[in-house]
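Hi U.,

Before I forget, here's the chain from the pilot set. I'm dumping it here mostly so it's searchable later in email.
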Amino acid sequence: MLGVITDLTSMGAAGVMGAMWLWERRSSAQRERELSESHERIMRDEQRLDKLTQVVEQATAAITRFEQTQREMSGFIKHLLKEIHHGSDTAQRGTADARSEERPETRHSKSENRNNPQ
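Structure:
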C-alpha cells in the first residue's frame, strides 16, 4: 500500500487526491466490517435477551402459582385448625357439662343416702 501511495504522490495534486480516496475507501471498508460485526453481535444479544425474558416470565408465573398455592394451603390449614379447636372446645364443654350434670346428682344422691339411712 505504501508503494502505491508513493507512486500516486509523485503525480502531484491528482496523485494526493487519489491516495486520499484509496485511504478513505480502505477506512470505509474497515468501518463497514466493524459495523457488520457489531450488528451481528447485537442480533445475537437480542436473541439471548429474548430467551432470558422468556425464562424470567416463566419463573414469575411459577412463583405466582406457588404463592397462590401457598395461600390456599394456609387457608386450608387455618380452617382445619379452627375445626380442630372448635371440636376440642365442644368436646371439653361436653365433658364439663357432663361433669356438672353428674355432680348435683352425685351430691344429691350422697345427701339422700345420709338423710335416709335404709
